[in-house]
Design a protein that fits this description.
This protein is mainly alpha-helical. 82% of the residues lie in helices and 0% in strands. The protein has 8 helices and no strands. The mean pLDDT is 82.
Length: 236
């Protein structure tokens, strides 16, 4: 057991170690830190007012405070009782509830503040999509790529660019096929692009990088996302 800090510097170091410990051991703490940093950077990027930035800071760090306190309560509860105890479980649930309430409050604060700044940005982006023409292909492929990475992270298999569920190569390949088909409306070009997409998907199976289900799922996701975007912003 480490000795009790004797001066302010040691106390400060101990506090920093506590924050580092919570960040290393608690996934939720890392998530809260990431969201807090993103919110702060977004606020600076959008040049929100000083009052709004202050409110965002307070809300974000209140969530971090609640999560740190929740972690300390969990450590203490586990130390006091190695076996299951209804009372200990109730204490943990109460602490977790405090984190949930603070997170919900911060979400509401963020929505109220950012919505008025992001409205015009989103409106401009949507209007740009409607008039993008062939440039929409870049947007679609980017959305498909990011979506596949998110899904892979959720299933925690493979890497963003190799292996895992679903197949990113198949998703992008069939997204390109449908995009080219809808933009050109040329059966020959559509057929040639489909063959290329099919060969790419087949190569992922034959090389053993993906299973048939992973490739099929990726292909369907790529087609569905592409069709949805075209329906909403191009043919809508």
């Amino acid at each position: 057991m480490k000795p009790v800090p004797q001066n302010r510097l040691e106390s400060f170091n101990a506090a920093i170690e506590g924050i580092i410990l919570a960040t290393k051991t608690e996934k939720n703490m890392r998530i809260h830190f990431t969201v807090a940093l993103l919110a702060i950077f977004l606020a600076l990027f959008l040049r929100v007012s000083k009052i709004d930035i202050l409110i965002i800071f307070i809300s974000a760090f209140f969530v971090l405070f609640a999560e740190t306190l929740n972690t300390s309560i969990e450590y203490l509860a586990d130390y006091l009782s190695k076996e299951y105890s209804p009372e200990i479980a109730a204490v943990k649930n109460l602490a977790a509830g405090a984190v949930l309430l603070s997170s919900f409050g911060s979400f509401v604060v963020g929505y109220i503040i950012f919505s008025k700044y992001l409205y015009y940005v989103i409106y401009y982006f949507l209007n740009m999509l409607k008039t993008a023409g062939s440039d929409i292909s870049i947007v679609i492929i980017s959305i498909v790529f990011v979506g596949i990475i998110i899904i892979k992270a959720m299933f925690n298999k493979g890497t963003p660019l190799r292996g895992g569920f679903p197949s990113g190569h198949a998703a992008v390949a069939f997204s390109i096929w449908l995009t080219v088909s809808l933009l050109t409306l040329n059966p020959v070009v559509s057929l040639l692009t489909f063959i290329l997409a099919f060969l790419i998907a087949l190569s992922r199976i034959s090389s053993g990088i993906h299973t048939k289900i992973e490739v099929l799922t990726g292909s369907v996701i790529g087609v569905l996302i592409t069709a949805l975007i075209f329906k909403l912003f191009y043919f809508g």
